Amino acid sequence: MKHADIKEAAEALFNAQRNPFGAFSLGSETHHAVTIPDAVRRCRWISVDINAMAFGLFFVSPSLERARLVPCLDSDYPGIAVATKFIAGANGEEIVRHTRISTEPRWWADDGLPGMQEAFSDLAWTDQMAPLAPGTSGIAFPVHADRGQCGLVVFMGSEIALPQEALYEIHARCFSLFAAVARIRPGDAGKTRAISKRELECLKLTANGNTSEEIARLLKLSVHTANQYLTQSTQKLNAVNRNQAVAKALRLGLIE
Amino acid sequence: MSSPAALLQSDTLGSRLTSRGDLTSFFMQLTAEIGADSYMLVAIVHDQDRNDARIVSSNWIFDAIELIGKRLIAGLAQGALTVAPGIRPRPLVASQAPDADGLISGEEARLLDVLGHAEIYSLRLNVGRQRLFALFSAAGAGKIDQPALMRAQLKCCYALSHIPQLIAAAAMQDPLSDRERECLFWVSEGKTTDEVAVILGVSSNTVNSYITHAIQKFAASNRAMAIATAIRSGII
């Protein structure tokens, strides 16, 4: 579909439901369990509302040493846009570092587009960063989901229209979109085999500083069984030892 | 395009926020703009099995905090009513408690009502990887403007992003030195003492002493607990 067609279709879809508060009242937009095509569609709606040409949704890798963005979906779905390749490469490092400590949006503008530069610099709460993809202008919104997953939603275009009032609404919609996507793509959790309740109890007690002997006493198990639960959960979490298993379980939100 | 007129005072205050005092003026202004009377910025700290609230900033009267208690405040801040940005918030209405959510008892609800918290909204704030909670309340039910509240939630996230060190110090208390944090991170990645020593280019004894110090600072009983404490407070 051409950009204009998409815009028309989306407007037709939304006009009936529109009200002064825009997406804030569209309860259905927030709680839907989505599939990736649904998520692409939702992202396209947001993109159309700010007159962007392209978009991309990324996960920030949880490991500290790899400051990279992992692409999840973009406007060329099911393909992969060229811009996505730039953003997932070295160009994304600055924004990953930013996303870890800040929730403020960041924008960049192509030298040939003084209009975009001017429009973005009028926005409160935002700042300029190095271009994420060459020859483009755009804005990147840091987002976070329930279990500590961290991501970035990026919009690109040469005529993005984003008034101050809309900034909060668009960012809020990015948050709820990311929360929905994070539920269907729960990072490493998707690859881990189901961990039993008992195994989680043992992990939780380990995280609270209890030794195998203490866990055995607390849960009325033999020390051997307690150790076995811990070994099993370590294997299921793909961890090399208990310390890593505890860390992974906490980071995945399996234990509090 | 946006005109400067679209900016509210909270936007101006918040985007220039650098100090503790700025934080208070920003929250006071924001509270007024959304039609609320009180605000409270809370960090949740995990202490063994229970959650405690650490109040970072608030205009609740002292007696209200004392009478309601930190435990209940932690429950309100991180309870069933708490919403992430982008989700439509739902208030806790004291006159309707105890309700289906079972967050507070009838007695506690009466106390909240008397103390000027007839309705309370609880919002999750994401400041980079750190997570805080904001409670906005009003003396009368229905006074708080919901769409303005949803915008305010993003503004809070933005504003707090300006003072990461202050937030970390107030909320999370990171007692570790850079080296101790680094060692603990590698141990949490499953590395052994010897492996960490190779990674950091120091001796195993040094690594062990860094980790021992980290364990002592957290008053933890072993490595696993120190790791858990550090992850829960967002340090590693």
Give a quick rundown of the structure.
The complex is a heterodimer of chains A (256) and B (236). In chain A, 46% of the residues lie in helices and 12% in strands.
Helix and strand run of chain A = HHHEEHHEHEEEHHHHH
How helix-rich are the residues of chain A, as a percent range? 40-55%
Strands side by side in the biggest sheet of chain A: 2-1-6-5-3-4
Mean pLDDT of chain B: 87
The SSE string of chain B, one letter per element, is HHEEHHEHEEHHHHHH
Helix content of chain B: 40-55%
Compute the CA-based radius of gyration of chain A. 22 Å
According to DSSP, the number of beta strands of chain A is 6
What's the shape of chain A?
A: elongated
The oligomeric state is: heterodimer
- Class computed from helices, strands and strand pairing of chain A: alpha+beta
Largest sheet of chain A, in brief, is: 6 strands, mixed
Instruction: Please report the distance between the alpha carbons of the first and last residues of chain A.
Output: 45 Å
Can you walk through the features of this model?
The complex is a heterodimer of chains A (256) and B (236). In chain A, strand 5 (138-144) and strand 6 (150-156) form a beta hairpin. Chain A is α+β, with helices and mostly antiparallel strands and 256 residues long. Chain A has a six-stranded mixed β-sheet, sandwiched between helices. The longest helix of chain A has 21 residues, at 164-184. In chain A, helix 1 (3-15) packs across helix 3 (36-49), helix 3 (36-49) packs antiparallel against helix 7 (164-184) and helix 10 packs across helix 11. Chain A has helices at residues 3-15, 27-31, 36-49, 82-88, 93-101, 114-121, 164-184, 197-207, 212-218, 223-236, 242-251, and strands at 54-60, 69-74, 106-108, 127-128, 138-144, 150-156. Chain A is elongated. The longest helix of chain B is centred in the middle third of the chain and has 16 residues, at 146-161. Chain B is built from eleven helices and five strands, in the order ααββααβαββαααααα. Chain B is of the alpha+beta class. Chain B has a five-stranded antiparallel β-sheet, with helices on both faces. The interface between A and B is large, with 60 and 52 residues.
